[in-house]
Amino acid sequence: MLSYQVPKRRDVKNLTNWIENSANLATDETAYLSKSDLLSVGTPSDEPLAQVELFLEKVIMFCYRIFKKRPKIDLSRDPNVFIFSSPLLKRITRSLIAWIVVLILLIPVIIINAVSKVAIRMGVIVVASAVVIMTLALMTKVKTWEMFLGGATYATVLVVFVPGSTAAI
Predict the structure, then answer these.
(1) pTM of whole model > 0.70?
(2) Distance CA 63, CA 9 (A)
């Protein structure tokens, strides 16, 4: 029992909305939704991935409301229920995260090669290393030593660009 997680507020709200709109259950049978001791028996998901998926779902729903065209998610006969294709959404989410990571890693290299002052280059290295370490800490379940090693390795790679680069003037 102690290993189960507390359900996400969004999941409880979705279930509550469905029950209120469909009226399939008696009020006494839905009383458990207002209790504070609910447990989630589902497998825990990759939290950053789930957050980006949620963002993409909201974007799709926003586009649906603007263009009034129902996306190809008609798995339910209820017009108020949207069930997204999980594999497609996961692929899009992973692609988006991959592009963000590539930008986080390569933009500092471009800046270091474009700037001629060593002090600015060193500042870029400090800021870029901090961003990479924060990204590791927030988006993964990384151990402290792995975070230190990853940050030090990235900073070392960036330092290689400092003496050998010449600014394109």
Answers:
(1) no
(2) 24
DSSP state of 5: B
CA distance 102 to 96: 10
Helices (H), the chain: 9-22, 47-67, 86-114, 118-139, 144-164
Residue 40 — φ and ψ, nearest 5°?
-100, 120
What tokens were used for 23?
Answer: 């009226």
Task: Let me know: does 16 contact 33? Beta carbons within 8 Å.
Answer: yes
Structure tokens at 107: 């933009």
Lowest mean pLDDT among 41-45, 49-53, 130-134: 41-45
- Residues with Cβ within 8 Å of residue 15, at least 6 apart in sequence: 33
Beta carbons of 136 and 147 less than 8 angstroms apart:
yes
The token pair at 103 is 């930008």
Taking only Cα atoms into account, the Rg of the chain, rounded to an integer number of angstroms, comes to 23
